[in-house]
């Protein structure tokens, strides 16, 4: 019987040299295929630069690509080498609407100061060290859309991915002149000073949801088989803190696959969040879309082989057919210990990457068919 599962890994430029040369990329793709993975999520947008030659960036900012990759096209190299060994490629727009990290907005806001997100005091929006573009500004949205569309139009990719910064905005934002004026036109008053006022949260989150709806339509217009993947933080914390209304995204069918970042450092905490998601957010129809993000390595933290295997096993126990690990280097440490644990355990047999029809339904399940019919006739 063919196993159908999503087995993914993020490829970063932080604490990683994989994308620094074509040879390293080829070696990494060989290793991932041998370990049983079937999809990679390479970063293509972070720290205000792209990992591919971008005409959208060149026209607006005069910088075509990350200077470390000048003369190369890391995304094209990943696509070639991943497809050579049967891996899907879904480029990851890591920074999303973040402009910089501890750089006061960096090059983007130095050239486009009017694109800055503002807090209620009028300061440049900074949360946890990240400075933000105003994701509620139509011009900023247009810019990010142009990056996504040039990737899907120019590369043989299998989809695109947003994350906890795309689409997102820290709840403390939205106090720029453009957004305040828009709010006043609708409600006849200034936005509340309390950034977590319920109506104010929902109004801004709805703007981001509409952006995602448009992004979904435009990507599918290029190629209906492209997957729109999102890796938000966990609902509803992410709604209250970053205006990410992933429950509505799912209900409206604006994501094909979703990877909530369940970045907990012990299995008990991980299990608790999986249970909550399955119980409260994912109907039987939505469950095939779920492949949680699991933290493998960050700073000095390393997941233990025991926790890693427990998490994958528990996903399958809850009928979750996949996961995505952050990030590649974690597999290679300690003589490839975590990769070996996966290959000798849950990834012992290769798995087919799920098709769009797999992700949109679980038609092999009688219970699902009954659930779908009840929904259709208004019984649920």
Automatic annotation (TrEMBL):
Pfam families: GHL10. Signal peptide: none annotated. Keywords: Signal. Residues 5-280 form the Glycosyl hydrolase-like domain. InterPro entries: Divisome_Glycosyl_Hydrolase, GH, GHL10. It comes from the Bacteria. Gene3D superfamilies: Glycosidases (3.20.20.80). PANTHER family: GLYCOSYL HYDROLASE DIGH. This is Family 10 glycosylhydrolase.
């Amino acid at each position: 019987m063919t196993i159908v599962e999503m087995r993914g890994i993020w490829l970063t430029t932080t604490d990683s040299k994989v994308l620094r040369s074509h040879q390293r990329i080829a070696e990494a793709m060989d290793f991932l295929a041998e370990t049983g993975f079937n999809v990679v999520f390479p970063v293509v947008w972070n720290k205000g630069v792209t990992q591919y030659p971008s005409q959208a960036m060149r026209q607006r900012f005069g910088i075509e690509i990350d200077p470390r990759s000048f003369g190369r096209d890391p995304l094209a190299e990943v696509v070639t080498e991943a497809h050579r060994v049967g891996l899907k490629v879904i480029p990851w727009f890591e920074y999303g609407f973040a402009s910089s990290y501890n750089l006061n907005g960096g090059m983007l806001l130095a050239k486009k100061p009017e694109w800055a997100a503002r807090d209620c005091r009028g300061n440049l929006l900074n949360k946890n060290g990240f400075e933000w573009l105003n994701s509620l500004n139509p011009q900023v949205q247009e810019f990010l859309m142009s990056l996504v569309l040039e990737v899907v139009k120019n590369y043989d990719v299998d989809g695109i991915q947003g994350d906890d910064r795309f689409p997102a905005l820290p709840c403390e934002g939205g106090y720029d002149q453009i957004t305040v004026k828009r709010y006043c036109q609708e409600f006849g008053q200034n936005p509340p000073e309390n950034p977590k006022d319920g109506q104010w949260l929902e109004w801004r989150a709805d703007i981001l949801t509409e952006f995602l709806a448009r992004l979904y339509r435009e990507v599918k217009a290029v190629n209906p088989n492209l997957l729109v993947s999102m890796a938000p933080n966990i609902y509803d914390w992410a709604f209250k803190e970053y205006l990410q209304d992933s429950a509505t995204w799912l209900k409206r069918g604006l994501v094909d696959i979703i990877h909530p970042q369940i970045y907990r450092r012990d299995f008990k905490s991980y299990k608790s969040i999986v249970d909550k998601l399955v119980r409260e957010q994912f109907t039987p129809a939505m469950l095939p879309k779920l492949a949680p993000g699991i933290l493998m390595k960050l700073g000095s933290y390393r997941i233990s082989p025991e926790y890693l295997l427990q998490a994958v096993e528990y996903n399958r126990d809850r009928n979750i057919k996949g996961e995505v690990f952050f990030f590649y280097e974690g597999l290679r440490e300690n003589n490839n210990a975590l990769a070996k644990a996966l290959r000798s355990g849950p990834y012992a047999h290769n798995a087919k990457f799920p098709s769009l029809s797999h992700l949109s339904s679980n038609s092999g399940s009688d219970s699902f068919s009954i659930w779908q019919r009840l929904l259709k006739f208004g019984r649920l």
